[in-house]
Amino acid sequence: LRQLTQPEARTMFRLRPSSHAPLASLALLFIAWKLVLLGVALASPGEGYDSSTGLWMRWWGADTSPCTASDSGLVARLARRLAQRLVRWDAIYYTTSAQRGYVYEQEWAFGWGLTTLLGKLAEWLPLSSSPLLDVAYHGIFLANASHLVTVFVLYYLTLSLTQRHADQRIAFVTAALHIISPAGLFLAAPYPEAPFALLNFTGYLFYSHASSGDPSAWALKNDAYLIISGALFGLATTLRSNGLFCGVIMFYDAIAGSIRVLEGLGLIPTTTMSYIPSKLRDDVRYIGLRRLLTTVIAGVLVGLGFVGPQYIAWKQFCSGTSEDEVPVWCNRQIPSIYTWVQTHYWQENVGPFKYWTLSNLPLFLLATPTLLLMASSACLALTGQWSLTPPTVETHRAKVEAAKEFDQSSSITHRLALPQLVLAILALTSFHVQVITRLSSGYPLWYLFLATVILQRSTEAKGASWASWTVKWMIMYGLIQGALFAAFLPPA
């Protein structure tokens, strides 16, 4: 971690994995950072600023009072204390809904996918005498295990994006940066952030595999990769609704494919093509009719990740209910419980510019570094001002092949910028802005951007200093946020 924050490029080049075991090096760094964060959580005194967790555990028969806890062994007491420190804020909703199912409307604001998975794990593999503690333990284990695998997936995703000119150092530093993500303890608690990142990054990895190679040689393997990526994005959406933003990639590809089909049919004049943005015009050549159809299927799978839980909620609240007892949202043109809950229960804070109040200014300041990183890296990728640097090659044939691979890599990279930019804009204008620090853990582009800034030999001192301070901020924010989270203090 210390070497990551050095401003000198030559010092940064020393940060490299073992040539034989990069994943082992990442795992050791991961364990060290998690031990620090979990140690901060365990050291948090008392029940915290809010007593909700203690009341929640006592209500469900998971008493954490000293007299009860002293009857258990040291490991059991530490596990119980850790659960008490990590079941904070939204985690109370997730674990409660996982233990006894959804009862109240507002609980449907919290991902159906995570609560269902945790409920099944606690049912199939009990770890204690308390069903609620079982859910909490499984949530904590799932979060940490998912985060570790996410780090490995990000390593391979970076290698895939850099293709033949892959520099193992870029992949290693990108993955290492995700370990110290500003999401901090949210990636260790019963929250959906870690499993969401795992599904999202794996979806990006399959999308990258589908899009690599000669577009004219699109085969069944590419179809399968693309459909799998859509299915993974859909599963991620069952955990967090912002997974739906990955559908923007499929929508973009569908537009590019439609333009190519219409152009081939002579329905788009050549003169009209000149008005299409250059990036989109370049991507048109990569997407034929077959890929267009596969893209539509993948896009539908992404949408099902959002529609599926809405239908389950509709069956619970609207189907078979007397007319007098039917909730208001059931009679809407689009009966979505999620949109109803957001507008009805959080109407004062959720929506365009509703969060823009003077009292929320400190939260905007906290979110500013993450917003700047996500928005700037996405904009630079979309405008072509930042991209992965191709290798230096000698032969003409090698130059041609490298240029082709670099062009495809750049095409994939700017697609990954689309959902990240959408999230940054909506977080700034319509969300509780502070959540961007944890939602950023599910979007890989800004980690890759920061890694390239750290590792490029040609980086000026100013750029190196900026990267150094960014990494220091990530470490400090993770530690401070962890202490506040464990004490049930904002921001959350």
UniProtKB/TrEMBL annotation:
Pfam families registered for this protein in UniProt: Mannosyl_trans2
Alphabetically ordered keywords of this record: Endoplasmic reticulum, Glycosyltransferase, GPI-anchor biosynthesis, Membrane, Transferase, Transmembrane, Transmembrane helix
Domain of life (superkingdom): Eukaryota
Protein topology in the membrane: Multi-pass membrane protein
Lineage: Eukaryota, Fungi, Dikarya, Ascomycota, Pezizomycotina
Segments crossing the lipid bilayer: 21-43, 135-158, 170-191, 224-252, 292-312, 361-382, 471-489
Family listed: Belongs to the PIGV family.
GO cellular component terms, A-Z: endoplasmic reticulum membrane; mannosyltransferase complex
Organism of provenance: Trichodelitschia bisporula
Keyword NAD on entry: no
A GO biological-process term: GPI anchor biosynthetic process
A single GO molecular function term of this UniProt record: alpha-1,6-mannosyltransferase activity
Statement: the UniProt record of this protein carries the keyword Glycosyltransferase: yes
Function, in words: Mannosyltransferase involved in glycosylphosphatidylinositol-anchor biosynthesis.
Name the record gives this protein: GPI mannosyltransferase 2
